[in-house]
Amino acid sequence: MNALVSKQTVEEIVAARDETLRRFDAAFDLIAVADAAVAEANKMWRVAAPDQSGHWSDQDRECKAFFSAVRVPNKDEYRRTARKLVDVTVWTHIIEMSGIEALMDAQAKKELRDQMKYVPERTDRHGQLINQEEIARMLPEVTVENVHATLDRFLLDSEMIFRRGIVNVFSKLDRRFRSHDGFKVGSRMILNYIADRDDGRVRDYGDKADLLHDVERTFLVLDEKDARATYASLLARVKQERGGGWSPHQSEHEGDYFKIRIFKNGNAHLWFTRKDLVEKVNKILADHYGEVLGDGMTKEADPLQDKKLTPARRFGFFPSPEAVADTVIRNAHVLRPIEGEQLRILEPSAGTGNLSRRCIIGMSHFDNWSAHNRERYAKEYRFDNLVDCIELQPELAHQLTQAGVYNRVTCADFLAINPNPHRLYDRVVMNPPFDRERDIDHVMHALNFLKPDGFLIAVMSAGTEFRETRKSIAFRELMEKMKAQWLDLPAGSFAEVGTYVNTILMRVRKDGGYQSRMLER
Question: Which pTM was predicted?
Answer without folding.
Answer: 0.52
